[in-house]
């Protein structure tokens, strides 16, 4: 499977996510694994919308949480482990949002030269077909969900505004 963006939840379900987000206690994340300078919120127990609505054939939610990307927030490239699938839903964003693009690394499709070029004095390693080295921005609108199956992904630094997501790990 390859990462894709689709509409998983209805507008009414997105509104319920927003309501729950507002009701949860925020905690500051200076650095938590691959997440930097953001606000987290954790529902307890797992949200019924998530638990009651299988996504892409997956029925068991391992965990779910909210992230509020604010200025200076970003997520470095990482792959979520152990879930079989990660669903990241954009539940809200400000009109003045700058940065905060969701990026995945996709497979390089063409075999590149393996020989060193005269201008390659830094000793960079070759790029082979199938290597996950090509960054791709996954445009998302409020209400859309990006589904991932172990792909490396991250979020560019937010420089203005905010971006709110709901993250669910599925088994």
Through-space gap between termini: 15 Å
The average pLDDT is: 87
Q: What is the makeup of the main sheet?
A: 10 strands, antiparallel
What share of the residues lie within helices? 10-25%
How many strands appear in the DSSP assignment? 10
What's the SSE pattern? EHEEHEEEEEEE
| Poorly predicted tracts of residues | none
Oligomer: single chain
Q: What is the approximate shape?
A: globular
Please state the structural category: mainly beta
Q: Return Rg in Å.
A: 18 Å
Number of helices: 2
How much of the residues is beta strand, in percent?
A: 35-45%
Write a compact overview of the structure shown:
This protein has 171 residues and is mainly β. Helix content is 11%, strand content 42%.
Task: Annotate the secondary structure layout.
Layout: E1 4-7, H1 11-23, E2 27-32, E3 35-41, H2 48-52, E4 61-78, E5 85-93, E6 102-107, E7 132-137, E8 144-148, E9 153-155, E10 163-170
Antiparallel strand pairs: 1-8, 2-3, 3-4, 4-9, 4-10, 5-8, 5-10, 6-7, 6-9
Can you characterise this structure?
By secondary structure, the chain is mainly beta. It has 2 helices and 10 strands. Strands 1, 2, 3, 4, 5, 6, 7, 8, 9 and 10 form a 10-stranded antiparallel sheet that branches.
List keywords for this structure.
171 residues, mainly beta, 10-stranded antiparallel β-sheet, 2 helices
């Amino acid at each position: 499977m390859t990462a894709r963006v689709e509409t998983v939840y209805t507008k009414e379900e997105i509104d319920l996510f927003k309501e729950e987000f507002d009701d949860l206690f925020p905690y500051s994340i200076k650095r938590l694994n691959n997440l930097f300078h953001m606000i987290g919120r954790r529902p307890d127990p797992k949200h019924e919308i998530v638990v009651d609505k299988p996504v892409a054939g997956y029925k068991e939610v391992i965990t779910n949480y909210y992230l509020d990307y604010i200025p200076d927030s970003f997520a470095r490239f990482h792959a979520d482990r152990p879930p079989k699938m990660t669903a990241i839903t954009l539940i809200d964003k400000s009109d003045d949002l700058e940065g905060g693009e969701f990026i995945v690394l996709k497979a390089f499709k063409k075999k590149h030269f393996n020989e060193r070029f005269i201008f390659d004095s830094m000793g960079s390693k070759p790029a082979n077909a199938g290597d996950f080295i090509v960054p791709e921005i996954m445009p998302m609108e409020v209400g859309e969900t990006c589904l991932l199956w172990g792909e490396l992904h991250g979020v560019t630094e937010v420089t203005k505004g905010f971006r709110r997501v709901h993250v669910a790990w599925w088994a």
